[in-house]
Amino acid sequence: MEVGPGHFLLAKLDDVARWAQSSSVWPLTMGLACCAIEMMSATAPEYDIGRLGSEVFRPSPRQADLMIVSGRVAQKMAPVVKRLFDQMADPKWVISMGACASSGGVFDNYAIVQGVDTIIPVDVYVPGCPPTPDGLLYAVNLIQQQIREGGRGGLLARA
Amino acid sequence: MSMSTTPLTPEIVSHEGNAMVLSMGPQHPSTHGVLQIMLEIEGETILKAEPEIGYLHTGIEKTAENLFWSQAQTVIERMDYLAPSSNAYCYCLAVEQLLGLTDRIPERARQIRVLQAELTRVASHCVWLGTHGIDLGALSAFFYCFDMREKILDLQEATGGARMHPNYLRVGGVQADLPSGFMEQLDALLEMFPGRMRDLRGLLQSNPILQDRLVDVGIMTQEEAQDWSITGPGLRATGIAYDVRRAFPYGGYENYDFDIPTRTEGDSYARFLVRLDEMEQSMRIVRQVRDTLKPGPYAVDDTKVMPPPKETIALSMEALIHHFKIMTEGFRVPPGDVYQAVEGPRGELGYYVVSDGGNRPYRVRTRPPSMYNLQALKGLAPGNLIADLVVIIGSLDPVFGEVDR
Amino acid sequence: MPSTQTPPLTGTAIDPPALRPPIDDAAIERIAPANVHARLAELKREGFTLLLDVGAVDYPQRTPRFDIVYHLLNLRKTKRVRLLCGVTGTAPKLPTATDLWKSADWAEREIYDLFGISFEGHPDLRRIQMPNDWEGHPLRKDYPLRGPARERSPRPAFALKSNVQAGTPPSGRTLEALQQQIAKIRGEDRSK
Q1: Which of C145, C155, C156 sits opposite A110 (nearest CB)?
Q2: Where are the domains of chain B?
């Protein structure tokens, strides 16, 4: 990016788009279980995810960029998660928050999907049961980094 | 306009005359979790509501059957995830009854457990109030409540090591004594609490918008409440002063002075007021525990159940063996069955625990207060608007980890 | 034997409710399936107006195999009662309690879903926790914990995931790295 004479700013479109995308990642309210409460704490004043750009959590998948799968995914809920992911518009990213979403967690049994990455592609995994809101904030930072560095989910369609 | 007599299942989405079947959820900002409600509506008025649960079924009860008694507590704590210590408390009390240890729990351990149970109740009500406020559009309440909840989570982290699911209460007592600095932190919370409650009541209680939305919405009579097996604030808001801490005292609650707030109207506003009053009564108990906390051991003296203190393991062979046995085999609980109930933030949380004499629970059947409270939605929703339905769900305060288990 | 002991079933293997220590949590009765509805109605008339819970337990080595456990509460006298009803067979059945308490609805559906016990007269007996097309009744003791699909699959080993170098256990590399760091601090030449 360079500032030219007479108030011109020259930059690559990709860079500007990625800067805009990474500064305003809007998550989808995909709160399933205990991790959802820590996600709510991340929106609360003490941790404040709003300062990272995620000021609003959109209930509609059409309007969200980021799906934070926070909590254990039960057998009945798995098709719902898949459908919501499909309904999100590109570019989209997924954070698998917590041990249950990442791998089934403490629940190695008939009822829980052993990792949400068996049904949707995941960009960042956050360990913890539940992870502290700091962990979620770091995960959003990593997503922002991934957006800025390009690749999957950038301005172009995902690879 | 006809009400369909066939049960509303998720497969039915139809349009019949003026009535429409709509699926609200399972992903929805106002359903307080993964709840799907099949609504038969005419315009905005609900003719029939059929909640569909099971979207968070975790198989906790079956998982607990395959873990040691002390390990099972970790999964059981994840049922009511807003008040984890209350699940742990009920489970520990039940197992101690089977072990015959109830009278041998030291006084300090009982007091610390009461402290944790009341703090977790206030934390749970903070989430309830914050999310209820958000549903109504009162966003500030969310921030005030979660700020208060952070202080309580700091205390949980200090004692148990984790903000949620601290696994601090154990069969036989608590895991370790209160850390140094805990009392100062607790005092800071007790100091901050009355001012914060004043703020919250000022923001919400006499707020005309809140009153418009909550008063006379979701009215439940005493007979209906008993028919739907409602317990907790829902039951007390209809006028029945049933609180497990008074009715079937446990853990030393008879030593503390506290009121059971009740109302008679049975509407959402009454449930709202009852919970606010309950928060204050809980802090009253916390204050009494803090003032009367006795020194002493933090766990029962039985090293077959409670691991011996770490310092003794290097010095005593017996301590080492007991520690080894507990960690690798767990402890055995004599055969029998027991129903233990505590007053959770949502009502009577009960566990029917069956032991076959082994080192794993044979069966842990949960009496989930949220499931029974939520079922009342079938009776309360018809005739109301969808906006009122959101208020009713919030006032019943379900948590789906418990409903679905 | 204290009066809170449950009358034992005859000719049974393990029967925990009969072996229970004298815990005073509820008055306990064992009822035959034919009489359970009448007894529930009678108790409701006597003042046990709140149905606390309906649950089930599976004792596969015992006859009858399943125990349905009703907990009732008398609000006026603050007393509890526990009714144990044994059912057995390949398609066990019991009359529903939904005509006495509306709240028995979901509890009985859950027992049907997770144990396979039907309730005659239930308005809407279908699965509640598991998806509608699920096969099997998960909380039965002969149902595998991890579900029939994964019953024999091995637990995933961390070292098999492709993002960890196979062959070298993580702790080995960490130890090596640590030793090199220490050597560097000490100014020794430990490189190989």
Answers
A1: C145
A2: 60-383
- Cross-strand partners of B340: B351
pLDDT at A1: 63
* C138 contact A CB<8A: yes
ipTM of the complex: 0.89
pLDDT-flagged residues of chain C (< 50): 1-4, 157-172, 190-192
Distance CA C119, CA C121 (A): 6
> What CATH number labels B60-383?
1.10.645.10
Its pTM stands at 0.89
Model pLDDT for residues C149-181, shown as the tens digit of each residue: 877 666 654 433 443 333 444 444 555 666 777
B288: its two tokens: 């009494």
What is the domain extent for residue A39?
31-148
Helix (H) or strand (E) segment spanning residue B380:
helix B377-380
A110 closest CB neighbour out of C138, C155, C156: C138
Residue of A nearest to B151 (CA): A46
Within an 8 Å CB–CB cutoff, is residue C141 touching chain A? no
Q: Is C91 contained in some domain?
A: yes
Q: DSSP string of B154-197?
A: HHHHHHHSSSS----EETTEESSPPPTTHHHHHHHHHHHHHHHH
| Range(s) of the domain holding residue C21 | 16-185
Which amino acid is it at B230?
Answer: I
Question: A13 touching C, CB under 8 A?
Answer: no
pLDDT of residue C15: 81
- Structure token digits, residue B290: 């803090």
Query: Mean pLDDT over residues B302-316, rounded?
Result: 87
